Amino acid sequence: MAVKGLGGVDKQYDGSKLRIGIIHARWNKKIIDALVEGAVKRLKEFGVLSENIVIESVPGSFELPYGSKLFYEKQKNIHAPLDAIIPIGVLIKGSTMHFEYICDSTTNQLMKLNFELNIPVIFGVLTCLTEEQAEARAGLIEGKMHNHGEDWGAAAVEMVCKFK
């Protein structure tokens, strides 16, 4: 199973002039907090200044697409536009179809936002079958996997810097 993340970034990008938004769901707080921490850590490694990392929350993953759009518009309206957004959520399969509907609709709407907002919207939603899988992907189980939030932070900087 490939669990290495996005691998080496093809060059060291300078994120010192970037303004990155992170919007996260509040469900599965322990996992979400670790993913947000991982994204922030990686953004800072690329030189993104703490004051240029703006963090907001929404109730759940289903609210991430619309929340991301409102977040973007709010920052633009206060003359502090975002260069990229990292929506972070965790969906864990239960015993009903709810999981499939939320995964599908959230994924499709976040992807569409890239084109509507014309900035990178990084897919930071874990869709896992078990809580253990989600914890592993958040780097919470020692030696099992890395924190995917770090990948999302690196992807945000790369996508802005490479194509700007």
From TrEMBL:
E.C. numbers: 2.5.1.78
Pathway per the UniProt entry: Cofactor biosynthesis; riboflavin biosynthesis; riboflavin from 2-hydroxy-3-oxobutyl phosphate and 5-amino-6-(D-ribitylamino)uracil: step 1/2
GO biological process, one term: riboflavin biosynthetic process
One Gene Ontology term, aspect cellular component: riboflavin synthase complex
Signal peptide (from-to): none
Molecular function, one GO term: 6,7-dimethyl-8-ribityllumazine synthase activity
InterPro entries the record matches: LS, LS/RS, LS/RS_sf
Pfam families: DMRL_synthase
Top-tier EC class: transferase
Keywords recorded for this protein, A-Z: Riboflavin biosynthesis, Transferase
Catalytic activity as recorded in UniProt: (2S)-2-hydroxy-3-oxobutyl phosphate + 5-amino-6-(D-ribitylamino)uracil = 6,7-dimethyl-8-(1-D-ribityl)lumazine + phosphate + 2 H2O + H(+)
PANTHER family: 6,7-DIMETHYL-8-RIBITYLLUMAZINE SYNTHASE, 6,7-DIMETHYL-8-RIBITYLLUMAZINE SYNTHASE DMRL SYNTHASE LUMAZINE SYNTHASE
Annotated family: Belongs to the DMRL synthase family.
Assembly information from the UniProt record: Homopentamer.
Function recorded in the entry: Catalyzes the formation of 6,7-dimethyl-8-ribityllumazine by condensation of 5-amino-6-(D-ribitylamino)uracil with 3,4-dihydroxy-2-butanone 4-phosphate. This is the penultimate step in the biosynthesis of riboflavin.
Name of this chain's protein: 6,7-dimethyl-8-ribityllumazine synthase
Source organism of this protein record: Candida oxycetoniae
Organism phylogeny: Eukaryota, Fungi, Dikarya, Ascomycota, Saccharomycotina
